[in-house]
Amino acid sequence: MATPGAGVLTEVCVDSVAGVRIAAAAGADRVELCSGLEVGGLTPSAALIEHALAATGGSGLAVHVLIRPRSGDFRYSIDEIRCMERDVTVAVELGAHGVVIGALNVDGSVDLDVTSRLMAVARAAGRAAAVAHPRRSSRVGVTFHRAFDLTADPFAALEAVRRCGIERILTSGQAAGAAAGAVLLRKLVSAAGSGRTPIAILAGGGIGADTVAELIRTTGVREVHFSGKRLVRSTMQLVPEGVSMGAADSFDRMATDPDLVRATIAAARSAG
C-alpha cells in the first residue's frame, strides 16, 4: 500500500498487469501505464488499462496512462491528435487517475495548442466520469512526459507547461539519465516551485536503487520515476532462425522486477 507522507513520491513505469501488481505490493504511489517500453512507451490498450486498474486491489496505487500514439518525434498530425484526444477520454472513462501527455513544435518549443486541447479533453472527461460515477473524483492528474527533454529552452518550456495547467513534468534534466542531468534538475526544481502555481518535477531516466538517494539529495526532487525492469529470457523451445518480429531479439523481453522495484522505493524513502 502506498505510504502517505513518506516524503518522496515514487512512480513505476510498467507495461503489464503483473507490473501493476508488483508496484502495488512494493508500496509505490503511482504507476505510469504504457505499452512498448522498448520504444520509450506507447499508449496501452483499453483492455490493459481496465485490467491494470482492477489489479491495484484497493492499494491506493494511482494509475496514470501514457498517451503517445507512435514512436518517433513529438510533432503530431491532426489524425494523431484526434486519436490522442480519444485515448485520453477512454482512459479517464475506464477509471484512470491521470494521463501523461506531451507535444512539441518543429522548433523544439511546447506545442501549446495540442497540449491545451489534451488538457481540455482530460478535464471534460473527468467531469463526465464524476457525473456517471458519483463516487469518483472529477480530478484528472496530468503529467507532461519526457518530450520536455527535447525542448530548446527548458525554462521557457516549464512556463509553457505551467500555463496549460499541467501539474508535473517528467524529465531527466535533458540528459541521457537523471544522474547526468542533476544540475539542470536542481534548477528546474527551484523554478518550478516559484510563482503562484507550483509545478512538480518528476525525475526519471536511469534511476535505480544505487542512484536514487543521491539524486534526491542533490536535486531536491520530491518525485521519482523508474521502471525497475530486467531481461526475461524466452521459454520457447522452437526459435526459428531468420524470422524476426522487428526487434533485435523478439523472443526475449524486459519485465518489471519485484526486487528492483522494492529496493528503489526503499532507497527513495530513506532519502526523503
From TrEMBL:
SUPFAM superfamilies: CutC-like (SSF110395). InterPro entries: CutC-like, CutC-like_dom_sf. Pfam families: CutC. Its main location: cytoplasm. It is found in: Cytoplasm. The keyword Oxidoreductase does not apply. GO terms for molecular function: copper ion binding. Transmembrane segments: none annotated. The keyword Signal does not apply. One of its GO terms (cellular component) is cytoplasm. Keywords: Cytoplasm. Belongs to the CutC family. HAMAP family: CutC. This is PF03932 family protein CutC. The lineage of its organism: Bacteria, Bacillati, Actinomycetota, Actinomycetes, Nakamurellales. The gene is cutC.
